[in-house]
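// run 5 | inverse folding | seed 20
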């Protein structure tokens, strides 16, 4: 069995039964209480090699099933069936009885199956529908029979861990942490099903550093002073462990003591200026597509990034697993949390309801991660991906920002990364895939005139309701680079099925020279709060990463060292 670790260290109980491994599987909508003919390895999508299937055709409907053993003790309280993520719509049955359904391919959901289960063997069945050609968020999943451009293999059905846990009838529903202004205490917001006494203990390095208790009537907040103050910082993931006890239920969690904000153009962590040296990470794996074979792959990707001098990543067009964010939290690794909005029709406000329901779930489930320093609900909302004549509805962008700030006012929000922005955004960011010569012209316009010359980027030349940069908001170069290396890559993304980059160089020296010139252009601009290089590793035909898709080395150690030295140069805004 792969991936048997607990999937969410931010909300972990002692009783945990992993249901990953062999499940029965069939394409199509099957029956709900029968044995199925095929097999699949969960939690890997059927398109992946690790699933044991590797079927990359359109699988719009499929069925999963397996038997589980249930004891008398399991049925004394709640027996909760958890799914980390199932793409896209699914229905869950136990012994043929409908239990629950869920819409959205990127967030967790659960259901108490005790009322439907018996002592002994029980059959779980999951029916899935997923068609990326519909008006749904699907990120970079291809709408064609093959991967092309910057669209990759689809990921249908179960792609995160499935597990069981027991709880009493009265149980802890959620916990949220709020760092108080003195930076020496934390507000712990506990939500519970029922009434009774709740106990909260906070630890650092195994030592108890704070505690609170009291009667809870469904929800209660506790302000806890900390006897030891260790700030969460770049490269220093100082995490506090937390235990919450409510009757017979106990949950383990953690938090990081940090604040994020902007002061003018400067990005601040705990009130100190930090230049965001980010790299684009799309969360794809050559053998598991959306799902890493081992959780250690998360830690390794972060290590590879940090070894190149990056202090974080923009997690692009995908909601990453909670376990990845846990490793980011531990490493003091900065990330932008983004919604996979591609696939929705931005001109159609019917899609807005879909977006709001699913994006709000993301924020609710991921809000405690200190590594998330910026929310990015939308990416490149210029016009319809399939028809450039259909322009986005500005109200879609405005609503995305409003929902994000209502759900979480503690973090900056980039309303629509790369443009075109709406009338409300905390950061005005841009995407620029030109080489160094035109990039320097672009930066000159910013330095001398506080002007963004969008015609010099790969953004469309015009769009309805385009909001122009006002010269006051913080600026971030949130995509640049995208350069391929080697003779096998084409210089344009026009030939389907071939490796591509926005530009290509055949020698390491030429690649490095261009990398340093372009990156220095951003580092030397005192009006920029950060950059994000595209990208950490190749993804299928998009071969413009600093590593291969397998994460093996693409460049010599000498070149990698030079890239790291460039990235670590002091940025102009850090000197100001």
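// decoded
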């Amino acid at each position: 069995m792969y991936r048997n670790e607990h999937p969410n260290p931010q909300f972990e109980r002692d009783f945990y039964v992993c249901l990953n491994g062999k499940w029965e599987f069939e394409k199509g909508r099957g029956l709900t209480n029968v044995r199925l003919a095929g097999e699949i390895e969960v939690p890997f999508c059927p398109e992946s090699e690790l699933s044991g299937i590797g079927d990359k055709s359109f699988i719009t409907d499929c069925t999963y099933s397996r038997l589980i053993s249930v004891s008398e003790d399991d049925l004394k309280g709640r027996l909760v069936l958890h799914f980390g993520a199932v793409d896209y719509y699914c229905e869950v049955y136990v012994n043929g009885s409908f239990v629950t359904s869920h819409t959205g391919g990127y967030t967790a959901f659960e259901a108490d199956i005790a009322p439907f289960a018996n002592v002994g063997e029980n059959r779980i069945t999951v029916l899935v529908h997923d068609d990326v050609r519909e008006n749904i968020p699907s990120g970079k999943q291809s709408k064609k029979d093959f991967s092309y451009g910057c669209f990759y293999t689809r990921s249908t059905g179960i792609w995160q861990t499935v597990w069981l846990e027991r709880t009493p009838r009265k149980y802890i529903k959620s916990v949220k942490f709020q760092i108080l202004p003195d930076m020496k205490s934390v507000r712990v917001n506990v939500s519970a099903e029922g009434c009774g006494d709740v106990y909260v203990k906070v630890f650092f390095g195994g030592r108890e550093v704070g505690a609170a208790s009291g009667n809870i009537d469904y929800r209660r907040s506790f302000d806890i002073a900390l006897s030891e103050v260790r700030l969460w910082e770049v490269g220093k993931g100082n995490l506090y462990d937390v235990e919450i006890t409510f009757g017979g239920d106990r949950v383990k969690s953690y938090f990081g003591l940090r604040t994020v904000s902007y002061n003018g153009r400067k990005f601040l962590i705990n009130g100190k200026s930090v230049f965001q040296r980010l790299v684009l990470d799309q969360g794809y794996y050559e053998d598991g597509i959306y799902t890493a074979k081992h959780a250690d792959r998360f830690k390794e990707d972060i290590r590879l990034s940090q070894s190149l001098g990056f202090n974080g990543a923009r997690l692009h067009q995908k909601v990453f697993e909670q376990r990845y964010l846990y490793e980011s939290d531990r490493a003091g690794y900065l990330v932008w949390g983004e919604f996979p909005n591609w696939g929705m029709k931005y001109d159609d406000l019917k899609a807005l309801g879909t977006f709001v329901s699913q994006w709000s779930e993301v924020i609710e489930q991921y809000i405690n991660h200190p590594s998330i320093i910026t929310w990015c609900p939308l990416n490149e909302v210029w016009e319809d991906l399939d028809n450039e004549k259909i322009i986005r509805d500005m109200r879609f962008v405005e609503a995305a920002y409003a929902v994000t700030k209502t759900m979480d006012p503690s973090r900056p929000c980039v309303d629509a990364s790369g443009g075109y922005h709406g009338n409300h955004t905390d950061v005005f960011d841009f995407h620029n895939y030109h080489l160094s010569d035109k990039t320097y012209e672009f930066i000159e316009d910013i330095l001398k005139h506080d002007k963004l010359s969008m015609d010099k980027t790969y953004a469309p030349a015009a769009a309805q309701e385009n909001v122009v940069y006002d010269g006051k908001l913080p600026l971030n170069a949130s995509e640049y680079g995208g350069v391929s290396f080697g003779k096998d890559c084409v210089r344009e993304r026009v030939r389907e099925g071939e490796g591509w980059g926005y530009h290509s160089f055949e020698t390491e020296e030429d690649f490095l020279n261009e990398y340093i010139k372009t990156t220095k252009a951003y580092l030397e601009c005192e009006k920029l709060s950060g950059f994000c290089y595209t990208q950490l590793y190749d993804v299928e035909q998009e071969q413009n990463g600093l590593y291969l898709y397998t994460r093996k080395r693409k460049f010599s150690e000498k070149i990698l060292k030079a890239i790291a030295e460039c990235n670590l140069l002091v940025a102009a805004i850090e000197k100001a």
